[in-house]
Amino acid sequence: MPTPMKYIDEFRDPQLARKMLEEIGRKATRHWTIMEICGGQTHSIIRNGIDQLLPDTITLVHGPGCPVCVTPLESLERALALAGREEVIFTSFGDMLRVPGNARDLFMVRSAGGDVRIVFSPLDALQIARDNPAKEVVFFAVGFETTAPANAMAVYQAAREGIENFSVLVSQVMVPPAMRVILSSPGNTVQGFLAAGHVCAVMGYAEYEPVALEFGVPIVVTGFEPVDLLAGILKTVELLEEGKAEVANCYGRVVSREGNLFAQEIVKKVFEVNDRQWRGIGLIPRSGLGLREEFARFDAETKFHVTNIIAEESPLCMSGTVLQGLMKPDGCPAFAKECTPQHPLGATMVSSEGACAAYYKYHHHIL
Amino acid sequence: MTIVPLCPLPIMQHETVQMAHGAGGQLSQSLMQRVFMPNLHNNFLDLLDDQAKLDLPPGRTAFTTDTYVVSPLFFPGGNIGELAVNGTVNDLAVGGARPLYLSAGFVLEEGLPLVELETIVKSMAEAARRAGVMIVTGDTKVVGKGQCDRIFINTSGIGCLREGVNLSCRNLKPGDAIILSGTVGDHGMAIMTSREGLSFQSQITSDCAALNSMIGAILDEEPLEIHAMRDPTRGGVAATLNELAQSSSVGIEINEATIPVKPDVRGACELLGIDPLHVANEGKVVVVVAQDKAGEVLDVLRSFDPGRDAVIIGSVVGDHPGMVVMRTLYGSRRIIDLPIGEQLPRIC
After folding, report:
1. How distant is the Cα of A321 from the closest Cα of chain B, in angstroms?
2. Residue A232 has what pLDDT?
3. Which of A42, A185, A278, A332 is the most exposed place for a label (fewest CB within 10 A)?
4. What's the complex ipTM?
């Protein structure tokens, strides 16, 4: 029997999970479609087979909250170009290395001689810059509101210490604008949301209140373990049944209404809101973050003149439809045929948080 | 006052490996005399011939080879030398052979501190002694700076196969029990958490160990109807089970609740987003045995230190041939697939 692990095992308790499943079955008097925003939640759902255990009245659709999946091909092509340069040490979260560009990924650049390194924090990338003053260290700053504070902090520290051989290739995106796009889509089926717990740990959940009100949907802040997910689903069903379009917090051990104010402050200091391309979805106005004027010299795109690199996506890949919850991964004609983790057409088949990868890995289109 | 000789003698006592150590001349000899012979000597090696002349017992012979390039060279619970001996011993043992003789080939990078080489060779000698095998022939090459990562070691091994024992990954039959000899992921996570750039502390120790005595005990006793054995190294238990299922065209079902994982290995895996079933082991064995003999095999395994946590994790089934399916803690089912490539830590 595995040794109990605090803050994990009590949220993986099979008996508690069973009780909550029964409760969901009792509460749901009709069919409801609920979207989990975050790719981490998608993986936990599929990995633990929660979708197999839910009553037929509940359909889960998978949301766009996978930073690797929505990073536009353009940013990726720019990353590949930078990583191949003689003077550059290119640093990235590990997830990005396998994401396919038009013809190659970062692993291929590395095997061709590029200095590509996996880091666990942008502050580690900054340390590499301190240790290698003769090199240019570029960090691939991708992610949602979860990665923004540490990425902002790395730039802020670089500015404060005058580390001029450090720069960031920014592809920061935000959740609420994507929710608005999904809810405004004519084909939308989503009736309630499980909000991404880790994003809310940083941002709080006050910013979801206007979304709930405007579109008439309940939004429930939810964690990642099976019991967390079931608690979030149960609360969403209760709100839907009662006809309440409000925000609730089922991840109280991590999330408060106002969020992490220190983290928000550093993000505001370094970044400003801008328009962003989302891979598979397209341009979403005021959905991203870019460096403020005073930190512009740390912007790798302008520093190395790669803004002229543009790219187009495979017409076969339907990841945009999947990311908006309009199609399940195994509904895509290319799924497990032209598109596999070995030969991915899009990032959703690669990232550890991608919905297509989760379906392929755990369901394998057979079970 | 220091007297500087006008015609200095060539320097023979280096602190680090020089290109000349691999050139076959005097420095090569000094490396043999200073590092290899004092630690590894035996009746075969002492002859300094280009080959070992061996008398093998009658019957069939098992032969295997493996190359070790682990980084870092020294990790909690072992080093590359120990790993190179135990790994090859285990590859022989899981085939049903009694490991007897090993060869050792070294590729050394110029500049490797000799004291590190000595430590590595000493632990190879110690590992060989513990496993009851002899290193009977060897070779050393030196390459320039940057042409290898400090030291690479190849070991090949010869063992004699037990009569009447027929282990093969094609032998699995529906109904067989799948036994795992202990906790998963210890070696891989010990390596990963001791690598540079991962700045968290852990107490995770590699499980690196020779398993031939333990495996011998379940093969030499009364016939226990063991059908297959594999050591779940690279790719972890997940890869091993998939290989077994595919080779025998049978399905395998395992039960999540039974998989033993040490708490700190689990913690590190949780943090990095890695499935412990995909992480390498260096002192574990997966045993496939007829269901009615599983209890006896467990008892024998548990009487050895590397097998003290041995447990039945699942069984062979007739359904879904070639696939490994896990029953989760919640009663749902999911596929256990081969890992795609390098284990990548997750982003957030």
Report:
1. 23
2. 98
3. A185
4. 0.81
Å between A356 CA and nearest CA of chain B: 14
Q: Is B260 on the interface with A (CB under 8 A)?
A: yes
Q: Is A59 on the interface with B (CB under 8 A)?
A: no
CA–CA dist B245, B336 (Å, integer): 11
A124 touches chain B (CB under 8 A): yes
A2 chain-B contacts, CB cut-off 8 A: 259-261, 263, 266
Q: Within 13 Å of residue A279, how many CA atoms lie on the same side as its CB? A: 33
Average pLDDT, rounded, for chain A: 93
In angstroms, the separation between the Cα of residue A67 and the nearest Cα of chain B is: 8
Domains A9-66+175-249 and A69-173+261-279+288-303 share a fold: yes
- In CATH, what class is A9-66+175-249? alpha beta
Asked whether B68 and B137 are in contact (CB, 8 A), the reply is: no
The CATH fold assigned to B19-161 is 60s Ribosomal Protein L30; Chain: A; (3.30.1330)
CATH 3.30.1330.10 residue spans of chain B: 19-161
Within 10 A of A190 (CB to CB), how many other CB atoms are there?
21
CB A174 within 8 A of CB A70: no
Of B197, B261, B330, the CB nearest to A14: B330
Non-local CB neighbours of A244 within 8 Å, separated by 6+ positions: A218
B261, B325, B337 member nearest A2 (Cβ): B261
Q: What is the pLDDT of residues A119-130, one digit of tens each?
A: 989 999 999 999
Could you tell me if A342 lies within 8 Å of chain B, comparing CB atoms?
yes
Digit-coded pLDDT (tens) for A265-283? 999 999 999 999 998 888 9
Q: Of B228, B32, B252, B275, give the one whose Cα is nearest residue B140.
A: B32
- Cα–Cα distance for residue pair B183/B35, rounded to 1 Å: 36
| Residues paired with residue B103 on neighbouring β-strands, in sequence order | B137, B156
In chain A, what are the domain boundaries?
A: 9-66+175-249, 69-173+261-279+288-303, 319-361
Residue range B177-335 in CATH 2.20.25.90? no
The model's pLDDT over B203-251, given as tens digits with 9 standing for 90+, comes to: 899 999 999 999 999 998 766 789 999 999 999 999 999 999 999 999 9
Q: Give the pLDDT band (50/70/90) at residue A1.
A: very low
CA atoms in the 13 A half-sphere facing the CB of B5: 5
DSSP state of B285: -
Of B273, B335, B346, the CB nearest to A364: B335
Token pair listed for A104: 């190659």
Cβ separation of B337 and A361 shorter than 8 Å?
Answer: yes
Q: Along chain B (348 residues), what's the average pLDDT of each consecutive run of 10 residues?
A: 56 81 87 92 91 93 96 93 98 97 97 96 98 96 94 97 91 97 95 72 89 95 85 95 97 97 91 90 97 95 97 97 95 88 61
